[in-house]
Amino acid sequence: MTAWALNFLTSFMRAGAVLALAALCMPAAGQAADSEEQPQQAGLMWNRTGLPAVFPLQVKSPKGADYFLTLQDHGSGEDALAAYIEGGAFFKVLVPPGRFVLRFASGTKWQGEEALFGAGTQYFEMPEPLEFAVRGLGGKAGHIVTLRQPRPGRSWLAGLKEQSICQTARLKVPDPALLDPQPGRRLFELGLEAQEKAQLRIRQQETGRLRQRDLERTGEASSLHARSVPEPPVPYQALKTQEMVEPLPRQSFRSYRVRSRFCG
User: Fold this and answer.
1) Which domain holds residue 162?
2) What is the number of structural domains in the chain?
3) Which of 106, 180, 246, 256 has the most CB atoms in a 10 Å sphere around its CB?
4) Where are the alpha helices (DSSP H) in 48-127?
5) CA atoms within 13 A on the CB side of 222
6) How far apart are CA 176 and CA 235, in angstroms?
7) For position 95, which CATH number holds?
8) CB 46 within 8 A of CB 69
9) 45 and 84 Cβ atoms separated by less than 8 Å
10) Per residue in 35-78, pLDDT tens?
11) In a domain, 137, yes or no
12) How far is CA 1 from CA 8, 11, 12, 107, in A?
């Protein structure tokens, strides 16, 4: 084998080794990319209380970092709710009733609930528990927390203000069909025999008027008046009727119209 052929074979083997090594490294690189945490969406992450979340909590935060918020039950010390806050963006979440301590973790690169924001995570919490409960008639008491980024060497500052959701209720206007001015009124339905008698009497009266008009035209009205004898009045006879009581309209359930608004 010549020197040129030997050099070509050596170069070819080295190139194959490099390609094989690159092929082995590619899956590892893909796994490393998959292991990186995806960006966390802002909003409620979980609610472990099993209670309905109806009380407002608004957090105003400065830009430059994100925040992981947990509500810790003041009595049991267990985490009740967690939410993710994007720094500088509007954030409001509904929380369940109770007394909770608000705990914050702050950082720039989210790495999951275990590592939070890594080694540079900053921790701080509200010094007093906040109560979320019903106040008065239909008022749902909540809070507004305003975070202020600290100066170098100082702790975080937080402003606190109450916020409530007030509810007003009024009865919906019922359907016009249900507004009967005479509920339970008595109705009478004429029987078939009474209707026939009434129609016969109307025809007889019409025939009598026509005969009298014809007699007046022929000049015999005076003789007719002399010969005519008034008939005795017919005693009043009640028509055969079927009496019934009109049933009340069926009243459907009418609900209240409830309106919610922020009142504090």
Assistant:
1) 43-171
2) 1
3) 106
4) 112-115
5) 1
6) 44
7) 2.60.40
8) no
9) yes
10) 455 789 999 999 999 999 999 999 999 999 999 999 999 999 99
11) yes
12) 11, 15, 16, 65
Residue 163, domain member (yes or no): yes
Residues in the chain: 264
Average pLDDT of the residues of the chain: 75
The pLDDT tens digits for 105-157 are 999 999 999 999 999 999 999 999 999 999 877 789 999 999 998 777 778 88
Residue 220 DSSP code: -
Domain annotation covers residue 154: yes
Neighbours of 147 (CB within 10 A): 20
Cα 36–42–48 angle (5° rounding)? Answer: 95
pLDDT at 19: 46
Distance in angstroms (rounded) separating the CA atoms of residues 122 and 112: 15
In a domain, 156, yes or no: yes
